[in-house]
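Usage example:
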Amino acid sequence: MNLPKTATPIEWRAILGALIALSLSLIISVLLILGSQRYHDLMNEWERQQRNAFQTVNAKYYNLQEALKIVNGAYLKEFNQLIKEGFFTIKPLLTVEEQRLKMVDKIKTLLFDLELITADYTLLKNKLYDFQDIIIIEPEFKTYQTQLILNLELLHEGDVLKLIETIEFQHFTGLFNLQRCDIKRLRDKIDVNNVSNPYFKANCVLAWYISEIEEDI
Amino acid sequence: MSKRILYLSDYELRAFRAKGKTVTEVHRFQILDNGEAEFAQYLSSDSKTPIYWLIDTTQEGYQTALLPHVVGKDHRDLMSHKKKRLFDKTAYTYGVVQGHEKQGRANDRVLFTALNNPALLQPWLNLIIAHKVPLVGIYSLPLLTECLLKCLPKAPEMLLVAHTPPTNSSSPAGLRQSFFVNQKLQFSRLIPLNTLNPQPDYAEYVLKQIITLQHYLENTHKLSQTESHEPLLVVILTDTPLVTALNKHLDYDSANLNIQVLDNRQLAHQTGLQLERENQGPKGENPLYLHDFIVFQLSRRWYTTKHYATATDTRYFFYRRARQALYLTSALLLSGATITSLMTLEKAQVIQQSGKEWAEKETNRQAELTQLHKQGQPNLPIDILFIQNVVDVGRHLKAHHISPRSAWEKLSQILNDHPDVFIERLEWGIGHSAADIFQPYSKSVQTNNEDKAENGKNPLEAFVPTQQFIEGMRLHGKISSFKGNYKNALHTFRQFVTDLRQQHNSWIVEVLRTPYNPNRVLKGQIGSQAEEVSRAPFAINILIRHTYPHESS
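Running the assembly step on the lines above writes:
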């Protein structure tokens, strides 16, 4: 169909209604498509949220179920034992630092009582113990490690074992582990007439562990 | 859907309404008798229905011409130029290519027609435009007669003679003679028919006009002149009372004419035409004219090329088409958008249903979780997850709580069997690898790899740090009472290592340094005692694998 070729101007009124209808239908179409698409996106997002919410609750449920299973087994007994050993306190009266000072006082007394030739000690600062993904723990649960370095001069190598077992017997608050020990012989032969000079020199590192829940983290 | 068709002769304008096979003549408007006012009233009563306008006038001209065969714009320009040359006083011209020359340059055979008196149309056209009635086109009746030929006897050259309504107030009817070659119009003539009296006057008059036209066609070389050509077929279309009269008088036995008389009623029956006239008597009493058949043919066609109307004349039809196209586009757009939206909503509903299922599952699981909390929490001092953490960490650390006593006692027992092996230094520790426990072994002393070579593989290859850890001892010592006897020293050391391995299968023994290796490069100074010679030193790593307690334990 060709437009009139003469100079007669186009009578827009003749097609105005149709043009308005086209414009309206265009607007309505765009609104319909955009509206439905928006609704679709909203539903998608809502569905994703519901799925995530379920997965979160589901994970909690299974974690709790698993935890209950183990707690109802041997865990609770072990938990009470660890509280008894002072490794963990539900509502601690002393801070970790205060307990550290208490522990070092006891160590000093102990070393004095053992009558070693010389016994030097170094207590390092507390540090947060890193489990390096070996154990998965809650972020609020913290375990601190304090290293005690002992430099000893001994007459007999058995004195090292005696020292370690004495420390264990003391039942310090927290857990004590011997990390390493380096014993060097100072003289090849034993002279029974000379018991004031050491035959062995030992450098031992013990680690003291204590834990707590820090709710404000 | 009905069509509105106008028929204009030199004498009157008739309006038809065609629906299906029924053609109804609804109005007649006299040119000289206040017809225009009636026509204006007629148009104002229905200004929406488009008009097809059929022209049947004595003032239509016909010219055939040969034009060079060109296409596209050249063809249009050539046609336009030719029309202007042939009919320079009118805008209502038309040209149609009817075929090609079979010989020579194959020029186009073109028929040009024109309405030589546009004033005939103007009053009616002005009213149509004033009422904004869509005008589809203005059509030439003789040209549209080609559509009727399929219902008539056929011949290469044919002359159709048919009645038309009166061409003036003094004649009872008109006589249209149209000449066709190969079903294409070549020439047409409309003359007044002075008598409709069946007795001799009518037949003689008609025959006379046919012969006159035959002579004209021969003189103008429109009719073939060769001896072998078929006689001209003359088809006379007339009313029933005149058929008999014509058959009686048309005993003209000419080799050049083959006259066949057809009854209008018979042709109407053949084509299916049902004609009604609203302002006349019953249809049986009304004469049928050529234009009745052409109106019928026009009403039955889906599309007919317009002949005369200019773009200005048909602008309201153009606007109507534009409106229809716009409304159709709008409808399609809305339909498409609605369908698309419905499909999207359907998908969204499926997703919503899925979301509801997840929400329901979540609610149920939340209830189960709350129930589980109630079951588990009342007797617990802290959150169950913290209890789990305390125990897991406690177990892990307690696993490291190993006294060296056991390992040292076992080592002492073996050393008792090897009095010549003298330990100078003992390192002990806990860790996940030898590197964790011990200082790097001195690089100045060459590490002996005999041990690894003997086993053929790394003894800690299958070690899993998350499940296992190592208790390690490193022995630094020498072979006492060596006195330069390498062979004995080496034997003593090897025996010691072998005993370490045999008596404790779980111990991994790595020899870092042997007292003497016969293949080693030897360097020394005569007169001085080098360390190798005087001491026969060795270094050994003993690694004991421990496993972390499992949860179930």
